[in-house]
# Entry
Amino acid sequence: MTLRNDDQLLNDYGKRGDAAAFDILYQRFRQPLFGFIRQQLPEAVANEVFQDCWMVVIEQASDYMPCGSFRGYLFTIARRKIADYWRGQQRQPSQTSDDGNVVEQFSDDVDPQKIQLQQATNAVILMCVGRLSKVQRDAFMLKQTGLAVEEISLILGATFETVKSRIRASYSQLRRCWERHHE
# Structure
């Protein structure tokens, strides 16, 4: 059996209805795609966006024309879906409980101090990532999914050197931010 590349698999699915080809693609990209989405969205929303991305792939499979890599195509769909979600959130009022606080429930086997420490750490990380410029944040988040710089440059429509510089600058800025908040 010969190994088929991602574009061939999508073409086989889109043009011939080869469900096994789609299954191979799904298995190859399931974890990296969900990880990328989950880094940027709450879990419940991430599940929905994840499914939406695959629905777009399914709906557009018969018209797919490779102009880069399938991975770039898939992650571009995800970036657009994530951006759509956040644009929608900006138009809606935030939801809180009646008293204005978020109520959390802990089970007996969970250490609330560990949870508080993890939440504080997460808050610092998110705050630091949030301080990155949009172009740095996009490059950083895509790099965190394991994409190569070449693939990130295709997704972002920027040169290889530009993406490399954005990633390097984001790491440097994140390191400085982290150090400032942990002195």
Remarks:
- Helices lie at 6-16, 19-40, 43-60, 70-91, 112-130, 134-144, 149-156, 160-180.
- The chain has two domains: 1-92, 115-183.
- Residues 53 and 74 are 7 Å apart (CA to CA).
- The chain has eight helices and no strands.
